[in-house]
Design a protein that fits this description.
alpha/beta, 5-stranded mixed sheet, binds pyridoxal-5'-phosphate
Length: 349
């Protein structure tokens, strides 16, 4: 018997199956490859520089982001995926006796971090039509985190409604997780000048086809950035590796390419959603690279199983009561989604 070991309810990430034929639509990865300039920079990367530690302040990458976002570089912190940034943000900003608020249906990691760091929290139920009701967030709290557009619903909450939540809670930090913002939502970046309690996080995993490289960032008032930097320097000062910094910088400089692939994904998403609706499925309105849908004629678990037999992997949440009749399907290429659609028709027909 070893004393002192901790018991943890860990986050359960989407599976990473492998196979040549498979269509992988279970973790919202990007359907298209990184930009040609990124692939070229990767091929010519000077491996000898890996001998040294990576940059401490990641100034080159932050400068590129600063230009792209039109935000001063001292308001940006970068990290090893946005999970890295979010986990540090929980430690940096949520240190009150009152509970941190987030929706009952949202990114599953929030609850895990709150538990892990002993942060009191309260899950606010989404409305019957899976929306965030801003009025629910006008109560005493120790901070707020909202994903916009939300996952796994895909629903975007308009910016003026987000602003009301930030405005009503200016004595705590409000984090807006914009993991899917480039698939049709409207960013809250413009609110940064008005509110110093706003912290926005972004990831390169979904829109920039970098899930395997691990790049994310946060944007906020320099006072917030200073606290989160202190956390970074207390856990993992070189949190972004040299290869990731180089390739992510090239990606930002070639962002036009990603606007093109995001546009293709949105077009395919809207086509796919309409096909499902035509089959009688319920489909939540999505501004992301996935759809949440309730199948007709067969159960979600049956469809999940049958698709998996054809090596089509989607996400099913059997343990979440409100989602047990739904599947979350990431949007692949148009060709992939046409194949998925004919398979769904075969199973449900
Ligand atoms: C994917 C995702 C993340 C994590 O992104 P990484 O950069 O891959 O760590 C964070 N928040 C939400 C809502 C996500 O969907």
């Amino acid at each position: 018997m070893i004393r002192g070991l901790r018991q943890i309810d860990a986050y359960v990430a989407g599976a990473q199956p492998s196979g040549d034929k498979m269509i992988k639509l279970n973790t919202n990865e990007n359907a298209y490859e990184p930009s040609p300039k990124v692939l070229e920079a990767f091929a010519h990367f000077d491996g000898n520089c890996l001998r040294k530690y990576s940059s401490l302040d990641q100034a080159v990458f932050r400068e590129a982001l600063s230009k792209q976002l039109q935000v001063p570089a001292d308001q940006i912190i970068v990290g090893n995926g946005s999970d890295d940034i979010l986990s540090m943000a929980f430690l940096a900003f949520f240190n009150d006796d009152l509970p941190v608020l987030f929706p009952d249906l949202t990114y599953g990691f929030y609850k895990v971090w709150a538990d892990l760091y002993h942060i009191p929290f309260k899950e606010i139920p989404l409305t019957a039509d899976f929306k965030i009701d801003g009025a629910d967030y006008h109560v005493p709290n120790g901070g707020i985190i909202i994903t916009d557009p939300n996952a796994p619903t895909g629903i975007f909450k308009p910016l003026d409604e987000i602003e009301k939540i930030i405005q009503a809670n200016q004595d705590v930090v409000v984090i807006v997780d914009e993991a899917y913002i480039n698939f049709g939502g409207q960013t809250a970046l413009s609110l940064l000048e008005k509110y110093d309690n706003l912290f926005i996080t972004r990831t390169f995993s979904k829109d920039a086809a970098f899930a395997g490289l691990r790049v994310g960032y946060g944007v906020g008032n320099p006072r917030l950035i200073a606290v989160i930097n202190a956390i970074k320097n207390s856990v993992n000062p070189y949190n972004l590796d040299a290869l990731a910094e180089k390739l992510a910088t090239v990606a930002v400089e070639d962002w036009l390419y990603y606007e093109g692939t995001c546009q293709k994904i949105m077009t395919t998403r809207d086509w796919f959603a309409q096909e499902l609706v035509d089959l009688g499925f319920e489909v939540l309105p999505s501004q992301t690279n996935f759809v949440l849908t309730r199948p007709q004629t067969v159960s979600a678990s049956h469809l999940f199983q049958k698709l998996q037999e054809k090596e089509i992997y989607v996400r099913y949440f059997p343990k979440v009561a409100r989602l047990k009749d739904y599947l979350r399907i990431s949007i692949g290429t148009q060709a992939e989604m046409e194949e998925v659609m004919s398979e769904i028709r075969r199973i449900c027909g």
